Each structure stands twice: as structure tokens, then as C-alpha cells.
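FIELD: query
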Amino acid sequence: MSAKPYGLYCPTSKACEILMPRWTIQILGELWGGSSRFNEIKRGLPGISPTLLTKRLKDMQAQGLLERVEDKATGAIDYFRTEKAAELDDIMIALAKWAQKHVQAEVALEDRDADLLMWNIRRQINVAKLPARRNVIRFNFSDATSPASTYWVITKPGEEVELCASDPGFDVDLFVETTVRVFTGIYLGRISFECQIDEGTLFLSGDKRLIRTFREWLVFSMHSGYEAIAAVPA
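FIELD: result
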């Protein structure tokens, strides 16, 4: 990274010199979302190459934005945001609010990567709101551009949510049939959940309790509740 990419002394430009190298803000977002291992961050940012991710992590560590922690016993490496990086939270929320309000819905929902969508969805499952047993939820997306279009989410009390792109062999408790565009729109608050149920573009079948409590155990994006979100035109 060049020492003076802008050559300006204003504070905003100086902040951009640190934050604007490609993928820096997205990496911070992944760390904020709970990813800490290299492969987790890479999974959440499929467009970045392993080589560039390695470089960015080193750059961000040098800038004091993240801390690299190695487990001496196992050799496992985790990356965590520093207090310096956490001070950017309000700024990142403000950017998200601006995008939700001013970026047109059709632009925001143009991607059809089901893998990336489900990687985020699995972090939004509130296991405590599900029946205290193994629950298997199958998602199928008819418009996915990713290698897989069907995913299985498996939950158990006290365990991390498991995401599979191949059939795990368990009986399915809930089937979710929709498109990436519709479900991303619902997740981001751009499309009405209730309207899509009524119109049949989101179809739920299976365990009636899971259907009835769907909005309780699947928590939509933290950005979905903002005011004046640019919604998909009716």
C-alpha cells in the first residue's frame, strides 16, 4: 500500500488511506460478524483470493486494526478486531443505513450467490428459539448461480449451527423453497416476508411449529429494521 495514495492532509482522506484498500472494510465486517479463522473469512468473502487475503490481514495488523492470535498448542490462528477497529462500528452502521436508503433494491439484490447468503444465514439462527432437539432445515433456491442451490442447516442445543451443501442423511423438519433474490431481499428488509408467503414466492412446509416461529428463530439482518429502506417496487 502506498504511503500517500491521495497526498492530502484532510482527516477524511487520511482515514481513507487506511480503510480504502480493497476488501479492508469487508474483512472488518466479517470479523465483526464472528469469523476469526482464515478459512471462515475467505468463505464469507468469496471474491478475494487467498494471496490477497493474506496480504490484507498483514496490512491490517500493521495498521493496528486486528490482532493475530496463535494457539501454541494446536497452531490454530485467529484474527480479532482491536479497539481501534471497533471504534469504526458507528461509521460502518451509518454506511449501511445510507446504502439501505439510497442504493436501489434491484442493484442491492442483483447477486445470486446462494452459498454466500447461507453462510450469513447460519449465523442468524437462534438455536434457543428452536425445539430442544436436532432440527434439520432444507433451503432450496431456484435461481442460484453458486455451485450448490440446496443447503441443509442442522441445529442441536449447545452446539454450533452446521451448514451442509450435500445431503447429511437426516429427515428434514422444514423445507424452505424460494429464490436467492427473494430471500436476500427478505433478510435485508427490502422485501416483505408476509407478502412473499402470500404470493407463494417463499414456500414453507413441514413442522408447523418451525413454520409458526420462523421469524423468531431466524433473525434477519441487523440492517433490516432501518427506516426508509429502498424496497422492491410493488
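FIELD: remark
DSSP finds twelve helices and seven strands in the chain.
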